[in-house]
Specification:
- InterPro entries: ACT-like_dom_sf, ACT_dom, Beta-grasp_dom_sf, HD/PDEase_dom, HD_domain, NT_sf, RelA/Spo_fam, RelA_SpoT.
- This is RelA/SpoT family protein.
- By secondary structure, the chain is α+β, with helices and mostly antiparallel strands.
């Protein structure tokens, strides 16, 4: 580079630095400015020899990220310094220790978190990608500011991606749409979320993006005319009320227009709400709510509102802190217009998220972030299991719309749309969730699968004896509840497996077979299982009983079978035999609420395999056809032939539950019914479905329908019932 070019670049760098201080949202003290200057000088020194793909000096990137953090997200000097230094440890001679020594623990911790994220392997494999995201989200445990600066870093990368190869652009854009945009949404950074989505679309579907962009530009003039026509109608009334306000028209983002076109299967011209009108008013906090409704009243005096589209986020703000009143009214020329009513404070919160929220609270901004991150961490509490499921579940929680429900004391709780009483129970406290026996919604008993609506009052009924069962996973929708239920089921399975190990040792000794690794491996292969834990669990459940173990003992003494067994054992199928987990075997398909076993055929269009989410479709000539829920034909079948759809799911044979009727006879005495029900409820893995007792002239007869997992458990229960004082006969119907 020539000396003149270097000089020009240095001037530009100095200019950018001045702008960074000027546009900062927070008021910076002299101490803050010193910290930022020191970070700036360090970054300039560290990156002095580096250039970006576009050819410009690398230092422009950290400055741009710091500017986003300072003005668009509105964070403080610590975060601005960390943003300036975010690539220093990864790419240059500076170490983390240097940063800690120069800038203190907090900045070093944030820079370390950002470096960790950058070091995650970049791979196209989706499960590895999901694993990386999970690791990234777990850095939230260190400091939420890491994620916020990472979002700013990603936004600048997306804005300057033109010089990259097309395949790289597509990969980074897809990743942005997959995780960074939902994260920005969840933090309440709506402007950044829109930018990330639009830029994501620009590189994943450039033709669509450019087409919509052109159409928006073409229709801008007409749109401005429409907004001014709309504004004229209400301006007079607002002025008469003496309200200080400004009215802005805001076009919907390209991505949201694209989503509408896709979801509603309409063209650009048919998307009716391509823009919103925003009324931003000035007021003192005390008057804020009153004025919002006054403006609402003025707007609806002139334009008829759509009653189903009123959103009051002033009385119940979103969990991101967003407050506003949204109404959709019938504007001039018969067009629906969304009107957003916000005070200046609410508008800042909508644009800056948490930084503004806590500026107005005059509290410590960090406390606010801590409170938010503790909510977000609920989704991260179970770091085990499948990473893809985890990320999908996490995204579900990020994008979910909210409902507001009341506790019995009248406190307000926000939950994702589609939540059930079980989600509500776990959101109050894990222990309440674990011991949920039932729920009342608005005073009425409802099943645990009942979907809650905004405004419901929910009371959870608990019992010491209640505990999660595998059906709960069908009822719970939030990541927190599902993670807790899975953890509890896992723990219970582990306990049963430990019990099973003891039983197996005893039973093998009776057969004169040594209990050692070789025997366990042979048994796993013999019963076509995956892990030793599977074997112990199934022995503990009584699925592998004496008869089956005798079959194994007989096969052992047969030399020919032993030869084949040793051949099978060498196969790679059982390489995970030592894994300390109980795997799920999806080997039976059941239908409907009663989980009936019916004849079926697998659909050729989507070829479902055991474990897939599926549904049954009753065909005219071929009986039940089973389709995957995401089968290309699913939407059409479900909308046109809803009455022919039946629920279906794969079940693990060891989780299968069966109905059995036990008949009791005996001499009636005080407290007998209580003894019987107590005995059944104390018996693990047994539930009472139906109960009927009759007493005539001192003789007692009873019929009890119980749900058990297998015959062994039923036999054990019947033996226990026989021992109750007064019971003479226990038989199975």
């Amino acid at each position: 580079m020539t000396e003149a070019a270097i000089d020009k670049e240095n001037k530009e760098i100095a200019q950018q630095y001045k702008e960074l201080l000027r546009i900062s949202y927070q008021t910076l003290s002299d101490e803050d400015k010193k910290l930022i200057r020191k970070a700036f000088d360090t970054a300039v020194d560290a990156h002095s020899d580096q250039r970006r793909k576009s050819g410009e000096a690398y230092i422009f990137h950290p400055i741009a990220v710091a500017k986003i953090v300072a003005s668009e997200i509105g964070l403080d000097a610590t975060c601005i310094a960390a943003a300036l230094l975010h690539d220093v440890v990864e790419d240059t001679k500076y170490t983390l220790e240097d940063i800690e020594e120069m800038f203190g623990k907090t900045v070093a911790k944030i820079v370390d978190g950002l470096t960790k994220i950058s070091h995650l392997k970049k791979d196209k494999d989706v499960s590895l990608q999901a694993e990386n995201f999970r690791k990234m989200l777990l850095t939230l445990n260190d400091d939420v500011r890491v994620i916020i600066i990472k979002i700013a870093d990603r936004l600048h990368n997306m804005q300057t991606m033109d010089a990259m190869r097309a395949d790289k652009q597509e990969k980074i854009a897809s990743e942005t749409l997959y995780i960074y945009a939902p994260l920005a949404h969840r933090i309440g950074l709506y402007n950044i979320k829109n930018d990330l989505e639009d830029l994501g679309l620009k590189y994943t579907e450039p033709d669509v993006y450019n087409d919509i962009l052109t159409k928006i530009r073409e229709s801008k003039e007409e749109q401005d005319r429409y907004i001014s026509e709309f504004t004229k109608v209400i301006q007079n009334s607002l002025d008469q009320e003496g309200i200080e306000y400004e009215i802005k028209g805001r076009p919907k983002s390209i991505y949201s227009i694209r989503r509408k076109m896709k979801n509603q299967n309409v063209s650009f011209d048919e998307v009716y709400d391509k823009f919103a009108v925003r009324i931003i008013y000035k007021t003192h906090t005390a008057n804020e709510k009153f004025l919002a409704w006054k403006i609402y009243s003025v707007v609806t005096d002139h334009f008829r509102p759509n009653p189903t589209r009123l959103r009051d986020w002033i009385s119940s703000p979103k969990s991101t802190g967003y407050e506003a009143l949204h109404i959709t009214v019938m504007g001039p020329k018969g067009r629906w217009v969304e009107v957003q009513i916000r005070s200046e404070r609410m508008n800042e919160i909508a644009e800056k998220g948490y930084a503004a929220h806590y500026k107005y609270k005059q509290g410590n901004e960090e406390d606010g972030l801590e409170e938010w991150v503790s909510r977000l961490q609920e989704a991260l509490e179970n770091p085990e299991g499948n990473a893809v499921d985890f990320v999908e579940q996490f995204k579900l929680n990020l994008y979910s719309k909210e409902i507001f429900v009341f506790t019995p004391q009248g406190d307000l709780k926000s939950l994702p749309k589609g939540a059930t009483p079980l989600d509500f129970a776990f959101s109050i406290h894990t222990e309440i969730g674990y011991h949920t026996r039932g729920a009342r919604v608005n005073g009425k008993l409802v099943p645990l699968s009942h979907v809650l609506n905004s405004g419901d009052q929910v009371e959870v009924i608990t019992s010491e004896k209640a505990r999660p069962n595998s059906n709960w996973l069908d009822y719970a929708t939030t990541a927190r509840a599902r993670a807790k239920i899975k953890a509890s089921l896992k723990e219970e399975k582990k306990m049963i497996a430990e019990e099973g190990k003891v039983i197996l040792t005893r039973k093998l000794r009776a057969q004169k077979i040594p209990f050692n690794e070789k025997t366990v491996n042979e048994l796993v292969v013999f019963f076509k299982l995956k892990t030793s834990q599977d074997l112990f669990y199934r022995v503990g459940m009584g699925i592998i009983d004496n008869i089956k173990l005798k079959e194994y003992a007989a096969s052992r003494s047969n030399a020919l079978v032993s030869f084949f067994k040793s051949k099978i054992k060498k196969s790679p199928k059982v390489e995970d035999i030592d894994r300390d987990e109980i795997t799920v075997k999806y080997d039976q398909l059941v239908f409907g609420k009663e989980e009936d076993v019916l004849d079926y055929k697998l659909a050729n269009c989507c070829n479902p395999i055991p474990g897939d989410s599926v549904f049954g479709f009753v065909t005219v000539s071929e009986g039940i056809k089973v389709h995957k829920k995401d089968c290309p034909n699913a939407i059409q079948l479900q909308s046109n032939f809803a009455y022919r759809i039946i629920q279906a799911k794969w079940k693990d044979s060891s989780q299968e539950e069966f109905k059995a009727v036990i008949k009791l006879q005996g001499i009636d005495n005080l407290g007998l019914v209580n003894d019987v029900t107590k005995e059944i409820s104390n018996n693990m893995n047994v539930n009472i479905r139906n109960i009927n007792f009759d007493s005539t002239d001192g003789v007692f007869t009873g019929k009890i329908t119980v749900i058990v997992k297998n015959n062994t458990i039923l036999k054990k229960l019947m033996e226990h019932l026989k021992k109750i004082n007064g019971i003479d006969k226990v038989t199975r119907e």
